[in-house]
Inverse folding.
């Protein structure tokens, strides 16, 4: 049954769809919010949600995707695959330039995929492990040759996963220290203009954008407002026009959506399928024992978190695969809220009250409250847990250094387990320095084997059998805690038209947006 808020979101999303029939108007600047302030804006180098949201309007990928995850042309205007499913040929647009005026060519694609992302991007690496070679056959043609057919290959080219970066800027440099990181250069509809740290990030219209008449807007101002109540007030008093997902506290959403000239949609997250998890350090301490990790799952009241902290939005996951991911095993035994079973497991392992450190996700008060709720759940079953709050930079650093016991996060599942799920559990994806790979340090040879086989298995029935088996193992081992499949509404003025036109929502939606004022 839908909650009243879910019903309201559905209704306003339907009414907002009528905007597509109207004649777009040019001009105007949209004021919006980014929360928290991103650590940087170079996609591929940084993959957290705030960076994707802002920089997805600066950078582009070869393709975009509908809300049904069907591919649409972007930097690649067409593509074809060989009969054996191993050779993919992309034909690039010939009228694209980087924001500094240099032409975008096939060499940029080869460099981005084969060099930049292989070094920096765990999501792209999960795809690239199946790629035997990448070749620019001319200035506007790129050929990817796969070792074997790889089912989800065509849905892996979204801008945040396979960002196109300028070879002439990054080749031969230390990528993380490149001066261009302070003034990102992409091919997208908006150009980086200014970043007043702690205040606003300003993007301006790319006057040389290759898509005729786009963008309609003159620019976007991403305001940085640390306090949740102040962000809500900024919308109420007209300072901002758009509240992307996660920018206001969940308890403010019902009130804000009832304001005049306000529309809301939950569309625009289909590609990502955001999935909240609790990292559990598998290397040392109590969290290295799977019985402790199982006890944590039984101790947490995840339904309370959904109903109270998230206003009934989202879904409590059965296990490692969210409902939007393909091949979910519906026969798994769920981890219901069962404090008594949690205590039994702790007694069985001989847990002696050793302190466990819990890192909240520094993305606002809802996440802080969630950490408090989990801390209370764990204490109720006898786990000695201490919260260690930090800012975004500190959170990134602590996870990248594996300096934690339990830590909140959310990752994207990307519609297929080979793209967004396996990266969390493959032992080959254990590497210090990133908070988005196998951060928990889970190693299981059978799981590695099953994930690797399933990625290239054919047909889908064979993939499904392999993925069902791997889920049974993960359900027993509990490498991480599965918290919630997140429901993220976007709130905006109804005179902001065409804001969500793809499966990644506002991350690339401002290209098509216009103001009816």
């Amino acid at each position: 049954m839908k909650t009243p808020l879910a019903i309201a979101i559905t209704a306003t999303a339907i009414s907002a769809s009528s905007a597509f029939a109207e004649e777009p108007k040019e001009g105007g600047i949209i004021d919006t919010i980014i929360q928290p302030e991103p650590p940087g804006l170079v996609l591929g180098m940084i993959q957290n949600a705030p960076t994707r949201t802002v920089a997805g309007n600066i950078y582009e990928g070869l393709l975009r995707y509908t809300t049904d995850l069907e591919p649409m042309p972007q930097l690649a205007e067409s593509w074809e695959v060989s009969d054996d499913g191993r050779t993919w040929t992309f034909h690039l647009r010939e009228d694209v330039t980087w924001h500094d005026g240099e032409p975008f060519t096939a060499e940029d694609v080869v460099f981005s995929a084969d060099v930049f992302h292989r070094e920096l991007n765990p999501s792209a690496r999960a795809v690239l492990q199946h790629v035997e070679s990448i070749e620019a056959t001319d200035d506007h043609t790129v050929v990817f040759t796969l070792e074997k057919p790889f089912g989800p290959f065509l849905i892996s080219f979204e801008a945040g996963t396979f960002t196109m970066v300028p070879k002439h800027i990054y080749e031969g440099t230390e990528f993380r220290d490149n001066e261009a990181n302070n003034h990102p250069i992409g091919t997208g509809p908006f150009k980086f203009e200014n970043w007043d740290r702690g205040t606003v990030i300003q993007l301006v219209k790319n006057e040389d954008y290759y898509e005729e008449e786009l963008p309609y807007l003159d620019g976007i101002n991403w305001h940085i407002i640390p306090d949740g109540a102040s962000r809500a007030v900024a919308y109420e008093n007209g300072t901002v026009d758009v509240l992307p997902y996660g920018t206001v506290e969940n308890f403010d959403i019902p009130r804000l959506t009832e304001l005049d000239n306000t529309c809301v949609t939950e569309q625009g997250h289909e590609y990502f399928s955001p999935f909240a998890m609790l990292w559990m350090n598998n290397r040392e301490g109590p969290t290295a024992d799977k019985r402790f990790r199982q006890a944590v799952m039984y101790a947490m009241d995840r339904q309370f978190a959904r109903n109270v902290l998230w206003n009934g939005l989202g879904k409590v996951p059965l296990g490692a695969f969210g409902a939007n991911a393909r091949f979910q095993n519906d026969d798994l035994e769920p981890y219901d809220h069962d404090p008594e079973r949690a205590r039994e497991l702790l007694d069985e392992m001989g847990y002696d009250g050793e302190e466990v450190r819990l890192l909240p996700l520094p993305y606002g008060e809802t996440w802080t409250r969630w950490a408090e709720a989990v801390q209370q759940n764990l204490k109720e079953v006898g786990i000695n847990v201490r919260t260690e709050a930090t800012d975004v930079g500190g959170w990134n650093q602590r996870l990248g250094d594996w300096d934690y016991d339990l830590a909140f996060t959310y990752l994207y599942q990307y519609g297929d387990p080979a793209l967004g799920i396996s990266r969390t559990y493959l032992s080959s994806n254990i590497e210090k320095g990133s908070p988005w790979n196998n951060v928990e340090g889970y190693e299981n040879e059978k799981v590695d084997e099953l994930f690797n086989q399933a990625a290239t298995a054919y047909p889908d029935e064979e993939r499904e059998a392999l993925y069902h088996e791997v889920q049974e193992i993960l359900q027993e081992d509990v490498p991480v805690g599965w918290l919630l499949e997140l429901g993220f509404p976007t709130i905006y003025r109804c005179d902001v038209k065409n804001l969500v036109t793809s499966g990644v929502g506002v991350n690339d939606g401002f290209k098509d947006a216009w103001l009816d004022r």
